[in-house]
Amino acid sequence: MLKADYSMDINLPQSDVWRYLEDWSNWAKQVPGYQTHKNISPTDSIWELHGKAGSITKDVKLYVKIIEITSPSTVQFRVRDSEDRCLGSGCFELSQLSSRSSTLTCLLELELKGLTGKISAPLIGSLLPGLLEKFVQRIAKPLTEADSVALPL
């Protein structure tokens, strides 16, 4: 099982960050390698990613299911690839630091199956923390740039 987590403080109230985070279509576009996503239902979607590690490239189709949303602090989800070789779960946890700042944490666990999974696990395991860090920073960027997203007052 591969595991990674990353936390980031954001200089916005928890309620502002939550309004962005609770709509997973906002953060789907922030996944490194994002190509497109399609909503299947309010809890299910298909994401297409293009991954690159050195000279190796791969297009991946991920099925993402929102398991639970607990306002204003937690989004839990599951992911799997189209061949069920990569299964995982994760969550976003949002906590209030003060009336004007909050902390966003993302946790992700992946299980890679089959021979390909065993071979690629060391590489993916070494890349996962950096990818998760980049992902969370991309989620925070539109929130902290004044002109990128219009947050309700």
UniProtKB/TrEMBL annotation:
Pfam families recorded: Polyketide_cyc2
Protein name: SRPBCC family protein
Organism from which the protein derives: Oceanobacillus aidingensis
Record lineage: Bacteria, Bacillati, Bacillota, Bacilli, Bacillales
InterPro entries: Polyketide_cyclase/dehydratase, START-like_dom_sf
Gene3D superfamilies to which the protein is assigned, alphabetical: 3.30.530.20
